[in-house]
Amino acid sequence: MTRVAVTGGAGYIGSHMCRRLAAHGHDVVVIDDLSGGHRDAVRWGPLRQCSLLDAPALSQALRDARCDAVIHFAGAIAVGESVADPLKYYAINFGGSLNLLQAMRDAGMRRLVFSSSAAIFGEPRQSFIDERHPIDPISPYGRGKAMVEQLLRDAAPAYGIDAVALRYFNAAGADPSAAIGESHDPETHLIPRLLRHVAGERGPIEIYGDDHATPDGTCIRDYVHVDDLCAAHLAALEHLDSHPGFHAFNLGNGNGYSVREVVAAVHAVTGKHVQARVAARRAGDPARLVACPDRARAVLGWHPATPSLEAIVETAWRWHRAPAY
Ligand code: UFG
Q1: Is 141 a catalytic residue?
Q2: Distance, CA 168 to ligand 1 centroid (Å)?
Q3: CATH superfamily of 190-221+254-321
Q4: Residue 122 and residue 129: Cα distance in Å, rounded?
């Protein structure tokens, strides 16, 4: 059994992680300032309400938590907003991570799993993005994530803080019991927007461009179930037991779906018609982002349990029909 501090543990992926850690017999301490997370999503361990930007409070929180490892989700998540307000993104995502590393070093904590992103790769140069793809982000969000990866690469030999960066493609879906789910404000992500739309909570959906270089002209993404991402984090923690240093893995299913295919999946799962109109492209959206997950499979033994898009949407729909927060 391990005792794990989960930053951002009141958020979407973080709360699913806490649930999985508890189910595997681990103790959890949530570190979250509740700026984006939800108190009602903190159910599997105590909440220490603390901002990553408050370095002394964070240091104290980590010392008090007496954990063996940290899983670091806390951060700002909107790529478009990062272009409009880069200082916010560098402060929270890079500055917050820097404070966390300093606090870990001071508390003598030696293991970290970090939420990185496919956004570090920028405009893809190959159809399936593996770990050898050049890191060349095109947004402050992606650059901040890449900078944290660099920080971790440097911190491993210097302080003996071993770390795994997990580059998520598109996290989606929800805990099948519908106890927790995806709830952002504002919501920018495609699947929850579509589900809120068919639930009658929001007007027509805009498809951001149908003139991309893809078969139907809409953007292709690799949607991966949130619980499968969490399984990879557990595997990453275990990997660090026998493999010190810094490691990085790309996490996706290796299947790409266009925006129109996601709309069709939402229709198939919910039985409801989606009102969608084509709008202008969204700045910074690559036409296609699909992972090559071979390394995570081979090294971490990661085999997603819910790779089907419809199954992913189905779990999200269960939550959206009766969200608890
Ligand atoms: N889209 C629409 N209409 C919408 C919302 C989204 O057409 O109302 C399109 C987007 O243009 C994109 C696709 O649906 O092509 C998926 O968009 P999301 O906003 O759901 O996800 P992104 O691919 O933009 O971003 C996600 C994560 C980021 C991460 C990025 C790259 O949210 O944190 O993947 O991995 F950086």
Answers
A1: yes
A2: 12
A3: UDP-galactose 4-epimerase, domain 1 (3.90.25.10)
A4: 11
